[in-house]
Design a protein that fits this description.
Layout lengths: L4 E3 L6 E4 H8 L9 E8 L3 E7 L4 E4 L2 E4 L3 E5 L9 E3 L1 H4 L2 E6 L4 E6 L4
Parallel strand pairs: 1-8, 2-7
Antiparallel strand pairs: 3-4, 4-7, 5-6, 9-10
């Protein structure tokens, strides 16, 4: 399913909020395959319970990453439209080119280079 995403080079992990995962992907803490990762503090202020789900693929316009490690975090956010945060774990599998003049981001798979 299509999901809005945001790039975060400062985050090792990729993450989506529990509310967004539930609304967009029909995945919550009770879904088969979901396992608890314990809790964490986000930005030194929000305590969040973390979960893992065995996602099969993450695809960007034809570029696929198999078995991406994406955490699901219960941050208490009420927004169903929180973006997927793409951390370094996923980004290192891609080559990115930011064309500021075109207001576009170009991607290729890291193995394509």
């Amino acid at each position: 399913k299509p999901v809005d995403a945001m790039i975060s080079t400062g985050s090792q992990s990729s993450m989506i909020s529990l509310k967004a995962a539930s609304h967009i992907l029909d995945i919550d803490e009770h879904t088969n395959g979901v396992s608890s990762l314990g809790s964490m503090i986000i930005n030194n202020e929000v305590k969040a319970q973390r979960y893992r789900f065995p996602f099969k693929t993450l695809t960007f316009e034809g570029i696929s990453i198999g078995n991406p490690k994406i955490e699901i975090a219960d941050t208490g956010s009420d927004s169903r439209k929180d973006p997927l945060l793409l951390g370094i774990g996923v980004l290192r599998q891609l080559h990115l080119f930011i064309a500021y003049d075109e207001n576009k981001l170009y991607l290729t798979g890291a193995e394509d280079q």
